[in-house]
Amino acid sequence: MTAPFYVPPEQLIKDRAEFARKGIQRGRPIVVMEYESGILLIGENPSRSLHKIGEIYDQVAFAGVGRFNEFETLRVAGIRYADVKGYTYARADVTGKGLANAYSQAVGQIFTHEVKPYEVEVLVAELGDDENHLYHVRFDGTLRDQHGFAVIGGEEDRLLEPIATGYRADMSLDEAIALTTSAISDTGDPSVPDAGWEAAVLDRALGRRKFRRLSPDELPDAD
Fold first, then answer.
1. Do 41 and 199 form a contact (C-beta atoms < 8 A)?
2. pLDDT tens for residues 57-96?
3. 171 is in which domain, residue-wise?
């Protein structure tokens, strides 16, 4: 009987991380940013039906980059998780932290035990009465609590610098849109054709459900 080929655990984890990271970087980035009355979620998306940004629950939104089928699976699972918890207990018991923890455990389990890791990163945004929360879940299950703004996918490091330079906590929605779209356009890959924008907000001025998709009139024109 032939002995199985041995791969050191640290090399296996490194290879999986590199594989997932390359897949995620090929996707177009999404920026999530707090502004004076809510949270903006925005990114380039050439499709009008395959959304990368969506509503999870009353005050909780989702953004995903990477392989569409994989982050769409996570989005649907998150909606089911929120619906069951809100129905079983109370709507107030559905929190962004609880959802992000569930995503972190699921993605981390897949990264550690499956042959192919998920090539995705997701961000859970929660609009609070006094304080907002942005939770970034990486491909290996690592969970980070972001403040003010967050970037997932694409050239994340290159995008962070111009956004950090121009960001203010009291920005209006128009200012937040201008800053994020300018940063994404300036750091984008010139070989990728211009595409339309997909954007949504969690807005305190709305009723119980705070999520609203932005119309094309509220966004820059695609060339």
1. yes
2. 999 999 999 999 999 999 999 999 999 999 999 999 999 9
3. 26-209
Asked if residue 223 belongs to a domain, the reply is no
Q: Answer whether residue 61 is part of any domain.
A: yes
Q: Checking DSSP bridges between strand 133-137 and strand 149-152, what pairing results, if any?
A: unpaired
Decide if 219 is inside a domain. Answer: no
pLDDT of residue 40: 97
Residue that is written with structure tokens 């990728």 in the block: 192
For residue 100, give every residue at least 6 positions away whose Cβ sits within 8 Å of its Cβ, in sequence order, or none. 124, 135, 137, 143
What pLDDT was estimated at residue 191?
Answer: 45
Beta carbons of 160 and 24 less than 8 angstroms apart: no
| Burial class (CB within 10 angstroms; exposed 0-12, middle 13-18, buried 19+) of 212 | middle
8 Å CB contact between 52 and 196 = no
